[in-house]
C-alpha cells in the first residue's frame, strides 16, 4: 500500500517530487533542527489519485490524514476542535516547482464558534482570536466554498468606516466580533447553510480545495508559461499555526539570503508586525525592511540571521524564507532556492564560485537561460533619461526599462496585445493571480500598492518583466481608468509612460533605449558556458545591423538569412512586384536585374558584419501574393503606379490566390517555376562573396534551398545554383568555395533525408514549418483551438515555442541519422524559433546537431542552454546527479 | 564496354527493357523464323546515355550504329546511298511500354535525289519511287527538322486540286516529281539549306529525333497518365523498308488475333492496298476489313492467319500485329500483346483459361484493373435509348455510354473540365497525339474520320473512354465549331449529345443511363480474384444508395462514412448552422438535438444496406465555416432566416475565417472544443446500431475520430464516445459491441502510432490528408505548380492519385509497424482515394494492411488489384517471374 501522508520528520529535501518543494524543505529544516511548526504533508501522489478517482479523496487517504493529524496532535499536545486547548492549522499547497500565488492557502483552520472563545481565553487576547476567526471565515469561504471575496471586504470596509479605523489593526475586539457575525450571515445567505463548524470537515474540504486549485485556469496558464507538466500535481501541507498577529511582539515576514534583484550578499527582505503572512504578500500594508527588525526584536533578528546562514550553506544557493514571530519567538515557515532577477542570478552564481561554495559547472546550471532576456534588453538612453521628468517614484521591483501605452486592466492589456499592440504598461492598484496573462503581454508593470515581495514584484521578476511596485505617489482610479501623477497631471488609457525597474522611477513619456553592455558577471558566466558547450550557436539575421548585434551576443555565424525580408523595403518592393506581374521570362529577368545589385550589396553587408563566420542564405520563400496588395483600393493605386489596368492587376492578384498559402506555391517551388529567380539570387550571393573576399575576408557562403520535399526538387534548383555560381566564379578569375544545402521543414524531406543528403551539403531544420506540417495545423489558425486544448489539458505546451520531441523530434532525429548515413560530414543545424528555447536546445544537443540558430537576443540564452545540455548529458553519462538548478 | 546496338537476331522477347517492346518482339519473331525485314535496335540505354551526355550521341555509339548498319547491308545485300542497289530503312521508336502515337517514326530513309532515280529504275516503278521520296521528305522535315507538316499538306492538296485527283493514289509519277520539287524548295526556304542528301546524316539525325521525342510534351503527359517512369527511355529500331505502296499487289495493315473490343476469338483488323503503314493509322483513307484480304490476296492471307496463330500460342495472349505485303509477299513489322477494352480483356482472360492456354492466376494478371472502370459504368437506359433518334452512326471504336456537352477542340474541352464541367464529348475530324489531355477529360470521343485502329480509337480504348470513330455521316466544321447531322440539323459547342460506343450510334440529346450488370466473364474473373487475394476491400460511402451499389460491386464493409456529407442536405443544414452560431453550450445542444434523429436514421439506413458488414463512421471533420455562406448577400439572407442581425452573423463568419483551413479548426479539434457534437454523433451511431440489431442484424459499428495528432487528443474524444455509448447501451438494456479507432492522416499520428494504438482499436490511413501534410502542399493549390513539376520532370506522378511510397509510404509502414507492436490485433486499413489505385493497393498488400477502402466504382478494381498483389508477392517469394501482363 502506498503511503500518502508524511510527517515533517519523515521526509527530506530530496523528496521534492513526492512532497512538493515546500513540504520537502519543511521536512529538511525539521531534520536540521530548525524551529519549524509541526505538521504533515499530503503527497502529490494523493493529488494525482484525487483526479484519477474523479475528484474525490479515497477513504484510505482520508484515514491516513486523520492518523497523521492525531499523531501531530500528540506531538504538539493540542487537540483539533478542543476549545480548552485548540490545535489550529494552516493548509497550504506546495508543488514540485514553485508557483507563487497560483494556488490556495487557508490559515487558522480549526476555528469555530466555541474554539474561538477558548482561544480568546487561552491567549487572553480576544482581539487576536476574533481577528483570526474573521480571517479564517473569509479565506475558507473564498477558497473552499467559492463565496466571492469582495463581499467580505465590503463588510470589513463598512466596519472600518463605521468605526473610523484606518488600518485593520485599528479595529478592536468588538469590531471584529461584529465582522464575524456579519461574515457568518453573509455565508449563510450565499450558501444556504451555516458556516461549517466541524474542524475535520473544514480540513478535508480545505485539502480538496488545494487539490482543485492545481487545475484552476491561472495555474494552467502559469504552468504553460513555465513549462511545468500538468500531471505533477500538488502536495498539501498541514501545519500548526503560529501567529504573527498576536500583538506588537508578533509579526511575519519574508527574506532572502542575498538581494534577489542585484544578487548583493546581504540579508534582504521585509516584515510586518502584528500581521499574518498573507498581509505581507498581498501588499495591503507596506512592510518594513529586514534591517529595522534589528531594533524591533534583536534576539529574533540574530536567530534569523544565523538560520539564514545555515540554510544557504546547506542548500548551497540563495534562499527565500518565510518566517513568523509569535510573541517574540521565531518560527520558520518555508525555505526554498529564491527566485531572482537575471542580474542577481548571474552575480550569485559567479559569487558562489568565488566563495568556493560551488563549481563553475554548478554555477552554469544555476542560471535559467530563459531569464537572460532581462539583461540583454535595452536600457533607457542616458541623455534622454536625464532630460526626462520623473512623475513618480515607486519600489524598483524588477529591473529593466519599459516604455508603452498604459492599460488599467489585465484583460484590456491582453486584448490590446492580441490586436498587435507591441508596447504596453499595465497599471494596477495591486495585481492578483488573475492578472497573470495581462502581465505576461506587458513590457512593464506599475502598481500603486505592495512591496518588493508583493505579487506584482515576485511575478514580474520571474517573467523578467520590468516592474515598479508600491508607487503610492500616483493616485490610480481603476474604474474610471486614469491615474494622477505627483504633479496632479492625469494619464488615461493609451497614454505613454516609461518605467525604470532598476530605480523605481516613472516617466510620463516615451523614452528611447540603448543596448545593454555584455560585461561583468554576464561575461564571466558566458565564458564558462562557452567552455562547457559543444553545440555552436548561430543567429537568424536578415540585416547587417541584426548580424552585428548577434556577433556582440556571441553568435558564431548566421544560420538563417531570409532574403525575402530584403524585398519588402520601399525601394525594392516595386522591382519585386514588377517581377511578379511579368508575363514573360524576359520581363521577369528585367525586373530581377534591378533587384540583383540591391541583393548583392545586402549580402556584402551581411558578410562584412559576420567577419568570415559562415552565413546561410535562404532563397526566396513566401508565396508571391504576399508581395502584392489584396484590397481593391490598394490594387488600384498599384496598377496606376505600374502602368497597367486595374482589371489586369486584379486578375494577377486573383490568380495568385491560394486556399492554403502555407501549403502553396512557395519555397523551392517558386524556383522550379521561375529558375531565373534562383539564378539572380545565386549571382548576388556569389558576386558579394567574391567582392568581400577581395577585401581580405574569406567567406564561404552557404546557399539554402527552402521547402524541399523530394531529392529531385533539390537537384533541379541546385543544378541552377551550381551552374550560375560556377559561371560567375569562372568569370571572376578568383576561386571561391560555397555550399548548397536545404532546409528540412517538410515531413517528406525528413523521411527521405538519406536521399536528400546525396545533394545537400547541409541540413537546417526549419522547425517552425516542420511543426506545422507534422501536427497538421497552421500557426495562424491554431490559436483558436489551442486555448481549448490547454483548458482541457490535451496539450500543455505550445509546440511552436517548445519543440515537440515526441513527434517533430522523432523526425529530426530520423533525418539527422539518415543524413549522416548518406553523408558523414553533413552539417546539421536548426533555424526555427525553437533554436532559442532552452529545452529545445537540449534536444538539439542530444540529437547531435552541429549548431542551433536563433534570433540575436536569444543567442546568449542558447549559449547557456547548450552549456547546460552538455553538462547534463556528461553528468548523466557519468551517472552523476546534475541538478538543473531552478529549472 | 556496353553494347548499345543489337541486330534483330541477337535479341529476344525477354530483352524488352533494353530493346523496347517493339525491338524485343522483332527479335523474337526473327528467332521464330517469321518473315521480318532485317534490321537492328539501338537500345534504351543509348537513349538514357544520350540525355546524360547533354543530348548528344557519343562517338562510340555512333560507331556501333554504323557497324551494325554495315552488317545489315551485308545481310540484305544492299547498300545505303547506293543508287544501283539502295538500302532504305524505317526508323521507329519502341519503348519498354507501348505508347501509341506518342513518339516519332520516319519511313523510306536513305532516299535522296540520285537514290530515288535508282529506285525507280530498279523497281521499274517511277511512281512508287517518287511517292516514297515525297513521303520521306515530308516525314523527315516534320519529325527531324521541325518544318510544319501542314505546309507540306498544302502542297499535296494543291497538286491534287491542280490535277483533279481525289486520293493520293490518283496522282501519277509526274505529279509526285512535282511534289518532291516543291517540297525541297519549301524545305530550303524554311531551313535555309538544302534537304540533306547524305543517308548517314539522315540516319543519325532521325535517331536523335526519336530520342528527343521521348521527352516531347505529349509523351510526358501520356507517361504520367499511364504510370510510365521517365527514366526508361526509348529504343530505336532501324529496319529494312518493305513497301506496301508498290502498287495494287502491295498493301499494309494491322490486325489482332482476337477482337480487341469484344474479345471474340476471330482475326480482326484492317488493311489498305497500295499504302504505307502510316496511311492506315492516320485514318486518311478508310481501310478494309481483314476478311476481304482473303479475296485480294488469298495466299498472303493464309500465311498471315498461320503466323497469327503461331504468335498467339507463342505469347499466350492476344496479339496486335502490323504487316506489309510487298508485291504479294508478306512481312511482319510488329507484334505485341494487344490493347483491348475491359470487356475484351475479361473475355480473353477467361477464354484463354478455358482453352488451357493459361492458368487462372495468369488470367488475373492479364487484366489491367484500371480498365475495369469501363465495364462498371452505366449504359444507356434501354427505354430511353429506344425512344431516342439516331442522328448518325459511326464505328463502335470503344465501348461504353457517354453523354455530354460537345467541344470541338481538346483545349476547350480541357478548359471546360477545369471550370468544373463534368460531362463533355470531344468532337473532332480526327484526333492526334496533341489532343491527349482533352481526350482524357472527355466522357466520349466522336471523330468524323478514321477507322477502328485510328488514333482516336486506340487511345480511347486504352483510356476506357467511349468512342465513336469515322462517323462520316456528320459534317464537322472545326473552325466554326459546329457539326451537321445526317438530317441537316446543326449542333454547336455546348449542345448535348450521347454516344454509344458499343453500337457506334450518336444521339442528339442527353440520355439517362442504367447500372451495368456484374455477370459473365466479369463475375468469373472477379471470383478468381477473390479467391486469390488476402486484402479485404471496403468502400467509402455516405448514403445507403452508395452503400448498396458498393455491395453489388463486392464491397466487404464501409471503410469511411463521412458524416458531414449528411449535414449538407437542405433539411439539415439549417439545424447545422443553428449549431454553429450557438453562443452557449445549451443552444448548441438544442440544435444538435434536432440533428440527432436525422443522423440516427442515416446510420440505420447504412447499417441496413451493409447487411452486417462492418461500417466505419468518421465523426465531423470539416471546419465549421464550410457550412456557412461567405458572400455578404448570402449572409444577409441567412441572417434573416435565422432571426439574427446581419452584423452578428457576419461577425461569426469572420471569426471562423481561417488562413489555412486545411490546417485549421477541424477534425477531432472540433470535438475537443465542442464535445457535445461527438456526444450527439455517438448517440446517433449507437442508437441506430441497437435499433437495427433489434431487427435481427448484428452490426458492430466502428467509430472513427479524425485528424488525431496526439494520443491525448484521441483519449479526450474517445472518453466522451465511450461514456456516451455506454450510457445509451446501458439504458437500452441490450448488449452491443463497438470499436473506437482513428484516422492516421497527420504525420505526427504516424510517428507516434505506438502511443496512439494504445487507445485506437483500428487505424484507417487517410492518405489524402497524409499526402498533403507529408508533402506540405494542399491539393487545392498544388495544381498551380505541379504542372511545372511535370514539365520539368521533378515529379512524374500526381501523389494524390498514386500513393507516394517513398515518403508517405514510409510513414504508413512505420505506423503499421508501431501500431501492431502496441496492439497486435489492431485492424489496419486505408481510406484515401489511393484505396482504388492499383499500385497503391499493391503497396497496401505489401505493408500488411487488412483492407483498402475506395469509392464504390473502384471496388472491383481494388479487388482485382489486391489479387494481383497477392499473386505477385507469392511469385516473388517463390522466385517465380509473375508477369504483370499489360501493366
Automatic annotation (TrEMBL), chains A, B:
The cofactor(s) it depends on are: Mg(2+)
Which residue range or ranges hold the PEP-utilising enzyme mobile domain? 421-504
* Positions with a binding annotation for substrate: 562, 618, 745, 766-769
Could you say which EC number(s) this protein's record lists?
2.7.9.1
Instruction: Summarize where Mg(2+) binds, as residue positions.
Output: 745, 769
Recall the GO molecular function terms of this protein's record: ATP binding; kinase activity; metal ion binding; pyruvate, phosphate dikinase activity
Sorted alphabetically, the keyword list is: ATP-binding, Kinase, Magnesium, Metal-binding, Nucleotide-binding, Pyruvate, Transferase
Location of the Pyruvate phosphate dikinase AMP/ATP-binding domain: 57-289, 296-351
Specify the PEP-utilising enzyme C-terminal domain's residue ranges.
519-869
> Highest taxon of the source?
Bacteria
One matching Pfam family, short form? Answer: PEP-utilizers_C
* Catalytic residue positions: 455 (tele-phosphohistidine intermediate), 831 (proton donor)
Reactions this protein catalyses: pyruvate + phosphate + ATP = phosphoenolpyruvate + AMP + diphosphate + H(+)
Q: Which PANTHER family match?
A: PHOSPHOENOLPYRUVATE DIKINASE-RELATED, PYRUVATE, PHOSPHATE DIKINASE 1, CHLOROPLASTIC
Annotated NCBIfam families: PRK05878.1 (NF004531), pyru_phos_dikin (TIGR01828)
Q: Which family does it belong to?
A: Belongs to the PEP-utilizing enzyme family.
Protein's name according to its UniProt entry: Pyruvate, phosphate dikinase
List the source organism: Ruminiclostridium sufflavum DSM 19573
Amino acid at each position: 500500500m502506498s503511503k500518502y501522508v508524511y510527517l515533517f520528520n519523515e521526509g527530506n529535501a530530496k523528496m521534492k517530487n513526492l512532497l512538493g518543494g515546500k513540504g520537502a524543505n519543511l521536512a529538511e529544516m525539521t531534520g536540521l533542527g530548525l524551529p519549524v511548526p509541526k505538521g504533515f504533508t499530503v503527497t502529490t501522489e494523493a493529488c494525482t489519485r484525487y483526479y484519477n478517482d474523479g475528484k474525490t479523496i479515497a477513504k484510505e487517504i482520508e484515514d491516513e490524514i486523520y492518523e497523521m493529524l492525531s499523531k501531530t496532535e500528540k506531538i504538539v499536545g493540542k487537540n483539533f476542535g478542543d476549545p480548552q486547548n485548540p490545535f489550529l492549522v494552516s493548509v497550504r499547497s506546495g508543488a514540485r516547482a514553485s508557483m507563487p500565488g497560483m494556488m490556495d492557502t487557508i490559515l487558522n483552520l480549526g476555528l469555530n464558534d466555541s474554539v474561538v472563545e477558548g482561544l480568546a481565553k487561552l491567549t487572553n487576547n480576544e482581539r487576536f482570536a476574533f481577528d483570526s476567526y474573521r480571517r479564517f471565515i473569509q479565506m475558507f469561504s473564498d477558497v473552499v466554498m467559492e463565496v466571492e471575496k469582495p463581499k467580505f471586504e465590503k463588510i470589513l470596509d463598512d466596519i472600518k468606516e463605521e468605526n473610523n479605523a484606518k488600518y485593520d489593526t485599528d479595529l478592536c475586539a468588538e469590531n471584529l466580533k461584529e465582522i464575524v457575525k456579519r461574515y457568518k450571515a453573509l455565508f449563510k445567505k450565499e450558501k444556504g447553510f451555516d458556516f461549517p463548524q466541524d474542524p475535520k470537515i473544514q480540513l478535508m474540504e480545505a485539502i480538496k480545495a488545494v487539490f482543485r486549485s492545481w487545475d484552476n485556469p491561472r495555474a494552467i496558464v502559469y504552468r504553460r508559461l513555465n513549462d511545468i507538466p500538468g500531471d505533477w500535481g500538488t502536495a498539501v501541507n498541514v501545519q500548526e499555526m503560529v501567529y504573527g498577529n498576536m500583538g506588537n511582539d508578533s509579526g511575519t515576514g519574508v527574506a532572502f539570503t542575498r538581494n534577489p534583484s542585484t544578487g548583493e550578499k546581504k540579508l534582504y527582505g521585509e516584515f510586518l508586525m502584528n500581521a499574518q503572512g498573507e498581509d505581507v504578500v498581498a501588499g495591503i500594508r507596506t512592510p518594513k525592511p529586514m534591517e529595522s527588525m534589528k531594533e524591533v526584536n534583536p534576539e529574533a533578528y540574530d536567530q534569523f540571521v544565523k538560520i539564514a546562514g545555515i540554510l544557504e550553506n546547506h542548500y548551497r544557493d540563495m534562499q527565500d524564507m518565510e518566517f513568523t514571530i509569535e510573541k517574540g519567538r521565531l518560527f520558520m515557515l518555508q525555505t526554498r532556492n529564491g527566485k531572482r532577477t537575471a542580474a542577481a542570478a548571474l552575480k550569485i552564481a559567479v559569487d558562489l564560485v568565488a566563495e568556493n561554495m560551488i563549481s563553475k559547472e554548478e554555477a552554469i546550471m544555476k542560471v535559467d537561460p530563459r531569464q537572460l532576456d532581462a539583461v540583454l534588453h535595452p536600457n533607457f538612453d542616458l541623455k534622454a533619461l536625464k532630460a526626462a521628468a520623473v512623475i513618480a517614484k515607486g519600489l524598483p521591483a524588477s529591473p529593466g526599462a519599459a516604455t508603452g501605452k498604459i492599460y488599467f486592466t489585465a484583460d484590456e492589456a491582453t486584448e490590446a496585445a492580441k490586436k498587435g499592440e507591441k508596447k504596453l504598461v499595465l497599471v494596477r492598484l495591486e495585481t492578483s493571480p488573475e492578472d497573470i496573462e495581462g502581465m505576461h503581454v506587458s513590457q512593464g508593470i506599475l502598481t500603486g500598492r505592495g512591496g518588493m515581495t508583493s505579487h506584482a514584484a515576485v511575478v514580474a521578476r520571474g517573467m523578467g518583466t520590468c516592474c515598479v511596485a508600491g508607487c503610492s505617489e500616483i493616485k490610480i482610479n481603476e474604474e474610471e481608468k486614469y491615474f494622477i501623477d505627483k504633479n496632479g497631471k492625469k494619464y488615461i488609457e493609451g497614454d505613454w509612460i516609461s518605467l525604470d525597474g532598476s530605480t523605481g522611477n516613472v516617466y510620463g513619456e516615451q523614452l528611447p533605449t540603448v543596448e545593454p553592455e555584455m560585461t561583468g558577471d554576464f561575461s564571466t558566466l558566458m565564458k564558462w558556458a562557452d567552455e562547457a558547450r559543444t553545440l555552436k550557436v548561430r543567429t537568424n539575421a536578415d540585416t547587417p545591423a541584426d548580424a552585428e548585434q548577434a556577433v556582440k551576443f556571441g553568435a558564431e555565424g548566421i544560420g538563417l538569412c531570409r532574403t525575402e525580408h530584403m524585398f519588402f523595403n520601399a525601394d525594392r518592393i516595386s522591382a519585386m512586384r514588377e517581377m511578379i506581374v511579368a508575363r514573360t521570362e524576359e520581363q521577369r529577368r528585367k525586373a530581377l536585374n534591378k533587384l540583383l545589385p540591391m541583393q548583392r550589396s545586402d549580402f556584402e553587408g551581411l558578410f562584412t558584419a559576420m567577419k568570415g563566420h559562415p552565413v546561410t542564405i535562404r532563397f526566396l520563400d513566401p508565396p508571391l501574393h504576399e508581395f502584392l496588395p489584396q484590397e481593391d483600393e490598394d490594387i488600384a493605386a498599384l496598377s496606376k503606379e505600374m502602368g497597367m489596368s486595374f482589371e489586369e492587376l486584379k486578375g494577377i492578384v486573383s490568380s495568385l490566390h491560394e486556399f492554403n498559402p502555407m501549403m502553396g506555391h512557395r519555397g523551392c517551388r517558386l524556383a522550379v517555376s521561375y529558375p531565373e529567380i534562383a539564378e539572380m539570387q545565386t549571382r548576388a550571393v556569389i558576386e558579394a562573396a567574391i567582392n568581400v573576399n577581395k577585401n581580405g575576408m574569406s567567406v564561404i557562403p552557404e546557399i539554402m534551398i527552402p521547402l524541399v520535399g523530394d531529392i529531385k526538387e533539390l537537384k533541379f534548383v541546385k543544378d541552377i545554383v551550381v551552374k550560375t555560381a560556377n559561371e560567375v566564379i569562372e568569370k571572376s578569375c578568383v576561386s571561391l568555395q560555397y555550399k548548397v544545402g536545404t532546409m528540412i521543414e517538410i515531413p517528406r524531406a525528413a523521411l527521405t533525408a538519406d536521399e536528400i543528403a546525396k545533394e545537400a551539403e547541409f541540413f537546417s531544420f526549419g522547425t517552425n514549418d516542420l511543426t506545422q506540417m507534422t501536427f497538421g495545423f497552421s500557426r495562424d489558425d491554431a490559436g483558436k483551438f489551442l486555448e481549448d486544448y490547454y483548458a482541457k489539458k490535451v496539450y500543455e505546451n505550445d509546440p511552436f515555442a517548445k519543440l515537440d520531441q515526441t513527434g517533430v523530434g522523432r523526425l529530426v532525429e530520423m533525418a539527422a541519422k539518415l543524413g549522416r548515413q548518406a553523408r558523414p560530414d553533413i552539417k546539421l543545424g536548426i533555424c526555427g524559433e525553437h533554436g532559442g528555447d532552452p529545452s529545445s536546445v537540449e534536444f538539439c544537443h542530444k540529437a547531435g546537431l552541429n549548431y542551433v540558430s536563433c534570433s540575436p537576443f536569444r543567442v546568449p540564452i542558447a549559449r547557456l542552454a547548450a552549456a547546460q545540455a552538455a553538462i547534463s548529458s556528461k553528468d548523466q553519462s557519468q551517472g552523476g546527479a546534475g541538478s538543473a538548478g531552478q529549472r
